[in-house]
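By way of example, we now present a protein record of this kind:
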Amino acid sequence: MDNKNVLITGVLGGMGYATAKAFLAKGYKVFGIDTKDECDLDVEYFKADLTDLNQVNKAFNQISAKTQKLDMICHFTGIYNMHAYNGICKYCKRIII
């Protein structure tokens, strides 16, 4: 992969975790955000609660210090209506496979 960067919110949840593993297997540089203290994935991990604007700003400042671009954002934090959720899953699956 030509230095592709992806940011995954909710990276330690079920869908976020699986998506991160798939992108890592494809050679992407993965940046992950979640609220848990520790991350067992080989990603650049940032602990942040996306409902707290100060934590969001801090995480994005830290990410900006590590890369000048993000090629994709996969947002798995929060609750979705099922229509939106299915659209995200189909989109990520199309890119990964």
User: Anything to note?
Assistant: Helices lie at 14-25, 53-66, 82-96.
